[in-house]
C-alpha cells in the first residue's frame, strides 16, 4: 500500500512526513515504510516468542510541489491513496486549496481520457465498451466531478484501471491545524463530502513533537492532551478502510505475521498471499478467530472446545482470522 502526500507549499506536508518517520531530519525525497501498529500481532508475539515479527506496512511518499507537474503526477498515479495536506494553521486556506487541487486532478484525468478517446475514434473503435466507459468518465470529469463519485461497475473499473486516474483513487484530506482550526472547517467538510473524500484533522507539528517523547510516555501524554490516539494512527486506519482491507494472521515459533487482504477474499486467495504454492496445492485452512485465541491461547484447549475450524477454499476470510494453510504440491 502506497500513500502519496501532496498539496500546496506551506501546507505542512513535509512536517507530516517527518512525523511519520519519527525524525526531524528524515529525508523526504525517499519513500518511507511505516509499520502499522497492531495489538494482535504484539499479543501473538508474546505467546510465541518468534524469531521474526512482521507487521503490515504502508509506504509514504512526499510528493514535491508543484504536486501536479508531469513528474509529480506520475508519482501520484503510482499511489494507492492520495493524501492532500492542507494549511489550516497559518493562512487557513484549506477549503480553497482543496478545490484547486481537486480541479488540477480532474484536468489531469480528463486530458488522459480524451487522448485515449481520440485514438479509439481514429482506429474505428468508438462503439466499443471501452469507448462507452471513457465517454461516461469524460462526461463526469467535464462536469467538474471526481471519478470516485461515479457509479462504475467492476467491468468499467477494469477498463479505467490502466489509466490510473487520480480522481478514482481514495482521497484523504489532512486539515493540518493546531488544537483548533484557523478557519471554519465546515466548507472543507462539505467539499470533501461532495468529492467522496475523507477529512482528517491532524496537527502535524504536534505529531512531530510527540515522536521526541519516550515511547512508554506517549500514551499518558496523549491522554493528558485529550487525545485517545495519534492523528497518524487515524490516518493509517483510514487507509485500510478506504482500500477495504482486512488483516489475517499467521503464527508460530518461526514467525508471527499480519497479512493485508481485500475484504471478501477467499481462503485460497489468502493462501496465495502467503505463497503461490499454498494456493496451488490448497487443501484446507485451519481457522481460529483472534478473539478466541486471545481468550484461550492454547491450541489444544481450543480444539477440545471446537473453536478450531477447517474451512474449504471458498471460505470468506474475516478480519483477525488466524490461518494455517494445509496444502500439497
The counted number of beta strands is 12
Poorly predicted ranges (pLDDT <50, ≥5 residues)? none
Report, as a whole number of angstroms, the end-to-end distance. Answer: 30 Å
Mind telling me the CATH superfamily name of the largest domain? P-loop containing nucleotide triphosphate hydrolases
Give a quick set of tags describing it.
Ubiquitin-like (UB roll), 12 strands, 2 domains, six-stranded mixed beta sheet, alpha/beta, three-stranded mixed beta sheet, 329 residues, flat, Rossmann fold
Any overview of this molecule?
By secondary structure, this protein is an alpha/beta fold. The strands form 3 sheets. A 6-stranded mixed beta sheet has the order 2-4-1-5-6-7, with helices on both faces. The model has no long low-confidence stretch (mean pLDDT 92). α1 (13-21) runs parallel beside α8 (204-210) and α4 (94-122) packs parallel to α7 (186-194). The chain has 2 domains: 2-242, P-loop containing nucleotide triphosphate hydrolases (Rossmann fold); 264-327, Beta-grasp domain (Ubiquitin-like (UB roll)). 43% of the residues lie in helices and 21% in strands. The protein has helices spanning 13-21, 39-48, 70-77, 94-122, 129-142, 154-160, 186-194, 204-210, 215-224, 231-242, 267-274, 276-280, 290-295, 299-304; strands spanning 2-6, 32-35, 52-54, 57-62, 81-87, 171-176, 198-202, 245-250, 255-262, 282-289, 309-311, 321-327.
